[in-house]
UniProtKB/TrEMBL annotation:
Record field: compositional bias (Low complexity): 1-22
CDD domains from the UniProt entry: cupin_CDO (cd10548)
Protein name (Swiss-Prot/TrEMBL): Cysteine dioxygenase
Gene3D superfamilies reported in the protein's UniProt record: Jelly Rolls
Length: 184
């Protein structure tokens, strides 16, 4: 896996109307629905014996481990020390879900480019057992704003191949910063 997920890792991103405005993530054929991915996350979360012995906490980057990879989806285990988080990113057209299995995380989600007028990001706090499912055009930022370490489980379909990263231009509008391939 490349460093793309190391800085990353019902949609809402709007691009500023400039030459460098973000194009929406592509829509790809998704073999699983966001609800099915949420069920996958819940099933893995219930298997504490499977993931808990693997958890590590690292600085300065977050730690991650692929729990499973099938032909049509993948499952990741991520850890978050206080203050660690992702850049604003999409999932290259993949749908996904993530659930908190330890600690708390905060998600900021954005309006899709061209979907509607820019607005400030929607902020959600996610505690243990919370699962957040999303479609192929979801753009967000996830951060551990708490004082305790957090752990989460993520599922994506299809398997991630690229992720795009954005910067805020103001009022919730986003500019595409870069697109990175995801490598094993």
């Amino acid at each position: 896996m490349s460093t793309a997920l190391s800085t990353a890792s019902s949609s809402d991103v709007t691009a500023a109307a400039t030459a460098s405005a973000a194009a929406p993530p592509p829509v790809v054929e998704n073999p699983r629905t966001p609800q099915e991915l949420a069920a996958t996350v819940r099933a893995y979360a219930a298997r504490v014996d499977l993931w808990e012995p693997l958890v590590r906490f690292t600085r300065p980057e977050r730690w991650w481990h692929r729990l499973a990879a099938g032909a049509d989806h993948e499952v990741w285990l991520l850890s978050w020390l206080p203050g660690q988080g992702t850049e604003i990113h999409d999932h290259g057209g993949a749908s996904g879900a993530f659930g908190v299995v330890r600690g708390e995380l905060t998600e900021r989600s954005f309006v899709l480019p061209g979907a509607e007028a820019p607005r400030p990001p929607r902020v959600r706090g996610l505690a243990v057992s919370a699962v957040r499912a999303f479609g192929p055009r979801h753009v967000h930022e996830v951060t551990n704003l708490g004082t305790e370490p957090a752990v989460s489980i993520h599922a994506y379909a299809p398997i991630l191949s690229t992720m795009s990263y954005y910067t805020e231009a103001g009022d919730g509008a986003l500019l595409l910063h870069r697109t990175d391939p995801i490598e094993d």
